[in-house]
Design a protein that fits this description.
Elements: E1 4-9, H1 15-25, E2 28-32, E3 36-41, H2 43-52, E4 58-66, H3 72-80, E5 93-101, H4 108-127, E6 132-133, E7 140-147, E8 150-156, H5 178-188, E9 195-198, H6 205-214, H7 236-247, E10 259-263, H8 266-278, E11 285-289, E12 302-306, H9 318-332, E13 336-342, H10 348-351, E14 357-363, E15 366-375, H11 380-384
Parallel strand pairs: 5-6, 5-7, 9-10, 9-12, 10-11, 12-13
Antiparallel strand pairs: 1-3, 1-4, 2-3, 4-8, 7-8, 13-15, 14-15
């Protein structure tokens, strides 16, 4: 079987992380793009990627690529060349999503409508009946990407975004995306060399993603459905083998590895505990009600990894709040590495500490920085002398 041309979508700033994850999973011909990574693999690997990848939002399978598509007629003719009855039942349903840019088509809705007409007309000519359009629960998700006069036609093998793991039944006002949380864990460099503390844990997402990575638990072990399960060529036996093989890689956490979450809001603590339970990780992650600003470093090596409020969806006094973060790190967490995702870039100056590293990421449409602070018990000069 020849390898498929596959595309994994992700957040800006996580392309390198996703490429490395794909390499470790066994992907071929890996090439990084913008918010995406291109790779090759067979159908079994497509199943494996959806089930296992922690930093991918969705997996697309390219089925055709057309060049010199500059008119509505050429678009219609190109879509008509694909034998859609090999991909979709005549009584089935589909949806079309369009992305990219083209100087020849300035209306993505028009592109979707014209392509829909080509598919429907093909079925009418052959079978005197046509599949329907379904936005919410289609049998086939078609993705068209325009790059000037080049048209790429792909199938979405994931369905709902892969960040919807299935364990998060309870969330707070501004929950972090699971894929972004997973990327933060990788970028932090945490591998159990210290306790991992999220001092503003909210829904518990960062800790859950960290535990799943360290234990090699498939990212979507709790997910109930993927779009490829509705494909006409879906091989249920092969998917079962892929899942069983992936589950054999799961390992226990050593006793010396601890993942701890604080939140001062009782409601947040309750939600985090529930999500940890949903992920079957309550043995490894401990959540408790505590105010970070009144906390002290545990008597053990610890790394802090957290996502403080941005003053976007949660209203805070940014100057006072971020100053307290800096003061707490300085006075209560010596000899500690602290990383936080900051979406209020102006607020960084209030922390009063100089980051040793800044990584540009996006949380949805919010531009953020993952900043790293190296805290020392004395002055840094003294520490390095």
């Amino acid at each position: 079987m020849s390898d498929l041309k596959l595309i994994a979508k992700t957040f800006f700033g996580l392309e390198d992380v996703l490429a490395k994850e794909l390499l470790q999973l066994g992907a071929k011909a890996i090439k990084k793009g913008n918010r995406s990574v291109y790779f090759e693999g067979d159908m079994g690997f497509l199943y494996k990627a959806n089930y296992n990848l922690h930093t991918a939002l969705r997996i697309l399978m390219e089925i055709r690529r057309f060049r010199h598509i500059r008119t509505a007629g050429q678009l219609y003719a190109a879509i008509s060349k694909i034998p859609w009855d090999t991909l979709l039942n005549r009584s089935g349903s589909f949806r079309i999503d369009v992305s990219g840019k083209s100087r020849f088509f300035n209306n993505t809705q028009f592109v979707a409508q014209k392509s829909k007409d080509a598919i429907v007309d093909q079925f009418r000519r052959q079978y005197k009946m046509r599949p329907s359009v379904s936005i919410t629960n289609p049998d086939l998700r078609i993705v068209l990407h325009l790059s000037d006069d080049t048209l790429s036609v792909s199938l979405d093998s994931s369905g709902e975004s892969l960040h919807k793991r299935g364990y998060r039944s309870a969330t707070n006002i501004a929950p972090i995306n699971e894929v972004l949380a997973a990327g933060m864990v990788v970028l932090s460099g945490w591998h159990g060399q210290a306790y991992l503390l999220d001092p503003m844990c909210g829904s518990g997402t960062i800790l859950i993603e960290a535990a799943m990575q360290e234990m090699q638990i498939p990212a979507n072990i709790n997910r109930t459905a993927f779009a490829f399960e509705k494909w006409l060529n879906f091989d249920a036996d092969l998917f079962k083998i892929i899942k069983e093989s992936s589950l054999k890689r799961i390992r226990e956490l050593p006793d010396n590895i601890k993942l701890i979450g604080y939140d001062k809001a009782p409601s947040a603590v309750a939600k985090a505990i529930q999500n940890v339970k949903n992920a079957n990780l309550e043995e490894f992650i401990k959540i408790k009600q505590a105010d970070f600003f009144k906390s002290q470093k545990p008597d053990t090596p610890v790394m802090l990894l957290f996502n403080p409020p941005y003053d976007e969806r949660l209203t805070i006094d940014a100057q006072s709040f971020y100053k307290k973060i800096g003061d707490t790190l300085k006075h209560h967490y010596p000899d500690t590495t602290a990383l936080m995702l900051v979406g209020n870039l102006q607020a960084l100056k209030y922390v009063g500490l100089r980051p040793s590293k800044k990584i540009k990421l996006f949380n949805g449409k919010i531009e953020t920085r993952l900043v790293t602070y190296q805290m020392y018990s004395g002055s840094r000069k003294k520490e390095l002398s």
